[in-house]
Amino acid sequence: MNKKHQKTLNQLAAMPVRSDIPWRDIEGLIVALGGDVSEGRGSRVRIHLNGVRAVFHRPHPKRVTDKGAVSSVRRFLKEAKVIS
After folding, report:
1. Residue 49: which residues within 8 A CB-CB, separation 6 or more?
2. pTM, entire model
3. Quick count: other Cβ atoms within 10 Å of Cβ 23?
4. How far is 23 from 2, CA to CA, in rounded Å?
5. 3-state class (DSSP) for residue 10
6. CA nearest 35: which of 44, 26, 43?
7. Three-state SS for 14?
8. Are 73 and 65 a contacting pair, CB within 8 Å?
C-alpha cells in the first residue's frame, strides 16, 4: 500500500464523514488491499475483500463519493477487518 492508498484509507476513517473522496481512489485502495473489484450492471461495482462482499454504485455524473456512500464503504472496511 503506497502513500496515496494510506491517504484514502485515512480519509475514509476520518470524522466527520467526508464527501470529497474520488471513487477511483477507493477502488484503487480495495485492489491494493488484495480485494477484487468487478463491474456489475449499469453503475454497480462488486467488491470482495477478506471474505466480505458488497455492491456499490459508482457515483455519476460527479467523480467524488457522497457522505452516504463513504459511510457504506467505511462499514464494509470494518466488516472486512481493515479499519476498526
Report:
1. 30, 33, 34, 35, 36, 76, 77, 80, 82
2. 0.92
3. 20
4. 17
5. helix
6. 26
7. coil
8. yes
φ/ψ region of 56 (left if φ > 0, alpha if ψ in -120 to 50, else beta) reads beta
| Single-letter residue type at 54 | A
Instruction: Please list the pLDDT of the chain residue by residue as tens digits (84 residues).
Output: 899 999 999 999 999 999 999 999 999 999 999 999 999 999 999 999 999 999 999 998 889 999 999 999 999 999 999 987
CA gap 83, 63 in Å, rounded: 24
Amino acid at 56: F
Q: What spatial distance separates the first Cα and last Cα of the chain, rounded to whole Å? A: 18
Listing DSSP states for 25-75 in one string gives HHHHHHHHTT-EEEE-STTEEEEEETTEEEEEE---SSSEEPHHHHHHHHH
